[in-house]
Amino acid sequence: MDEVNKTLYIPLYGKAYVSQKSLFLRDDMAEKIWASEGFQLTGKAKSKWLAYYMGMRAAVFDEWVMEQLNKYEEAVVLHIGCGLDSRVLRIGTKRMWYDIDFTEVIDERKRYYEEASNYRMIAADIRAHNWRQHIRETRCAIVAVEGVSMYVTNDELRAFMQQVSEHFDEAVLLMDCYTELAAKLSTYKNPIHDVGVSRVYGVREPQTLQSEAFTFVHEHTMTPVHFVQQLNGIERFIFQKLYAGRFSTKLYRLFSYNKKS
């Protein structure tokens, strides 16, 4: 895998770590993959604090997808940048679900997951248009874009959102983003450096990604109180200072968008 694709090991480790500790989410598949393959992470990429954050982020996305599934009865799910994530298993929906990532990631993913009548894996680059040809549904989409935006430009993100808008009558989208400050600071210090990534992009404000296709709806927290409270004593205190404080929102944010009617 190239350097960007190798970043999938960081959230995979985080989900396996918190799952073993019975925190935030249960992810048997992450535990299984991590234990069987013995991937190597070093430095901050294997920090327990980052693992907590990655696990918490995944749980927040899980909750949002489940909430949208309850709202939109005809919606299909698109998980962009799925990596080796098992969200489709954690949520367990019978809706049509598409996991989308680069070809070499999907090739790796197929070692652990099998397609089904309501589940497909699509090898595609969202900066191109080829992902759309694999999706026959056009009514409504729930789009989770997790751990992707920082590796593509703002123009490329807007172009992807335009493609979603052109393909579906209705769509809702949740996406985590670095701020411009975080992108600048990443030149000097970022756990993704431990897997070889050196170039990332930030978003100035959520409205930066608005267009004729999508409008900004809401900013979400990646560290909800009900998850932070699952940590105990000194760990809770340290985590709140490192990842749940005011400074953290100056670096990393979570935005939802709806397709304009």
UniProtKB/TrEMBL annotation:
Record key words, sorted: Methyltransferase, Transferase
Gene3D superfamilies (UniProt xref): Vaccinia Virus protein VP39
Q: Name one GO molecular function term.
A: methyltransferase activity
Please tell me whether the keyword Transferase is annotated for this protein: yes
Has UniProt tagged this entry with the keyword Transferase?
yes
- In its UniProt entry, the species of origin is given as Caryophanon latum
* InterPro entries noted in UniProt: Ppm1/Ppm2/Tcmp, SAM-dependent_MTases_sf, TcmP-like
What this protein is called in its record is: Methyltransferase
Give one Pfam family, short name only. LCM
- GO BP annotations, alphabetical order: methylation
